[in-house]
Amino acid sequence: MPVAVQILIALIVPGIVLMVSNLIRLRERMRVLDIVHAAALGGNPLTPEMLKALPGGGHMFPTPQRDFRLGVLLIACGAAIATIGLCVFIAVTSEGGPAVAIGVSIAAAGAIPACVGAALVILSRNDKRVVES
After folding, report:
1. Contact 31, 55 (CB under 8 A)
2. What count of other Cβ atoms lies within 10 Å of the Cβ of residue 81?
3. 54: closest CA among 22, 31, 24, 25?
4. Any idea where the domains of the chain sit in the sequence?
5. d(Cα 125, Cα 133) in Å, to the nearest integer?
6. Helix (H), strand (E), coil (C) string for the chain
7. pLDDT for position 131
8. How far apart are CA 4 and CA 88, in angstroms?
9. CA atoms of 49 and 51, how far apart (whole Å)
10. Tens-level pLDDT at each residue, the chain (133 residues)
11. How far, in Å, are 20, 55, 73 from residue 30 at the CA level?
């Protein structure tokens, strides 16, 4: 299998995973919207307790714990992209191509989510509620 096909597969698979996870979130939001719509049509008031009982209703605003989890996830994604860049570097080097340019550019793309994740972890750790739990 040519190196170009391997690189495309390595880049397409994470895209498919992201698309599937977004589809799952979209379906969950649509289900919540249907529940709220049915309650509004039935004339039932939406109390704060009812909104918190809905999926996703308990965390309308980001909490430090949620920021910490998201930060760790983004750091892991950045590390995975950087690892893909390293693998591409090794693969292109064995073929005799411009390995440094391709590998480093892919690895540099992994630095973006890793830096955002590190910022979220640092900011969530500054909140006393997360440190105590």
Report:
1. yes
2. 22
3. 31
4. 1-59, 61-127
5. 11
6. CCHHHHHHHHHHHHHHHHHHHHHHHHHHHHHHHHHHHHHHHHCCCCCHHHHHHCCCCCCCCCCHHHHHHHHHHHHHHHHHHHHHHHHHHHHHHHHCCCHHHHHHHHHHHHHHHHHHHHHHHHHHHCCHHHHHC
7. 46
8. 10
9. 5
10. 777 777 777 778 888 888 998 898 889 888 888 888 888 888 888 777 777 777 766 555 567 888 888 999 999 999 999 888 888 888 888 877 777 788 888 888 889 999 999 999 998 888 655 445 4
11. 15, 11, 25
- 32-64 burial by CB neighbour count: b if 16+ within 10 A, else e? eeebbeeeeeeeeeeeeeeeeeeeebeeeeeeb
Residue matched to tokens 């950045």: 78
At 24, which amino acid appears?
A: I
What is the C-alpha R_g of the chain? 21
CA distance 16 to 28: 19
Residue type for 94, please?
A: S
